[in-house]
């Protein structure tokens, strides 16, 4: 990705502002990495115009396609911000700054809370919290799959993609087929134009 | 399910910080389209660091706390045996190699991203990735056996959470706090003091 036409470069204080914004978003990012994406889009693309629309959406798509946690889309946002502002060196700085900002506060809070919960795991309230949340969490996991399936449906007929999603879910649930084979099959079906 | 420990001493767990780092690196690089599905398979079914029920419980904590949930899961599991250093080792494993890969991919995408075959391949892989996460959810439902609320209430809660977020587009934090709060209170009432 290279500098996008129409995007403003970041200078000195802008980086600090960006860091502060990510620190704040980190504490609000309950429910997964992608829940903060709409707010980042509003801030980076619409308000500050530091990123183009294409840079933003391709960052999310690439992070989804690559192995690893989805939060890496934030690293790609930082990369693009740096590329828009000067080049690869600034881009690497942007990666470090963005990832640190989005992870540092939430990591501290979660670590302290989980250590406390573990020390007090025999408390009735702690057990009730962990067990009570379980069915809701499972429902949310299915919903995440559903939402991801829908975002892949921007172009072309939807039903072959749904079929692929459903077949994958059944195969992984009921058999021990390796994930990489399924992903390769998905890529191949996509290239051949079947889905 | 009621009286188990998250990582009892006789159950296999991470042996060292290096073990944590490598385990999480390995599961992260397999996690196309998200790590959750792979994390479940590696940690519960292969390494047996966690039981089904314990995985769901830790997952609940990872979901309700701020931060990306797979990062939270790795820091909770890493921190359980080795404190701060374990949490950092697990998170570093989760991030280091995938970060390198995604940056390489970004550079490659800058060169070849315009090719329509690339976009079509990504579409197919996206559909598979969505199925992987659904399968993880279906498998985890096995961990609900023996739940104090019973199968029917658990099923209803899961369906309500799914419907609220997937079909009605309610914000996930509200669903977690609302439905989750009701579920926790009901569970509290059913548990022995």
Could you walk me through the main structural features you see in this protein, from its secondary elements to its overall organization?
The complex is a heterodimer of chains A (195) and B (193). Chain A has 195 residues and is mostly helical. Chain A has 8 helices and no strands. Chain A has helices at 12-28, 37-47, 53-65, 72-85, 88-119, 124-151, 159-174, 179-191. In chain A, helix 1 (12-28) runs parallel beside helix 5 (88-119), helix 3 runs antiparallel to helix 4 and helix 4 runs antiparallel to helix 5. The two termini of chain A are 27 Å apart. The model of chain A has no long low-confidence stretch (mean pLDDT 86). Chain B has helices at residues 17-30, 36-46, 52-64, 69-112, 116-140, 151-167, 172-190. Mean pLDDT of chain B is 85; it is low at 1-7. Chain B is built from 7 helices and no strands. By secondary structure, chain B is mainly α. In chain B, 55% of the residues are buried. In chain B, helix 2 (36-46) crosses helix 5 (116-140) and helix 6 runs antiparallel to helix 7. Chain B has 2 domains: 8-109, no CATH class; 144-193. The two termini of chain B are 15 Å apart. At the A-B interface, helix 1, helix 3, helix 4, helix 5 and helix 6 of A face helix 1, helix 2, helix 3, helix 4 and helix 5 of B.
Number of domains of chain A: 2
Portion in helices of chain A: over 70%
Strand content of chain B: under 5%
Strand content of chain A: under 5%
Query: What is the multimeric organization of the chains shown?
Result: heterodimer
Secondary structure blueprint with pairings:
The complex is a heterodimer of chains A (195) and B (193).
Chain A: H1 12-28, H2 37-47, H3 53-65, H4 72-85, H5 88-119, H6 124-151, H7 159-174, H8 179-191
Helix pairs in contact in A: 1-5, 3-4, 4-5
Chain B: H1 17-30, H2 36-46, H3 52-64, H4 69-112, H5 116-140, H6 151-167, H7 172-190
Helix pairs in contact in B: 1-4, 2-5, 3-4, 6-7
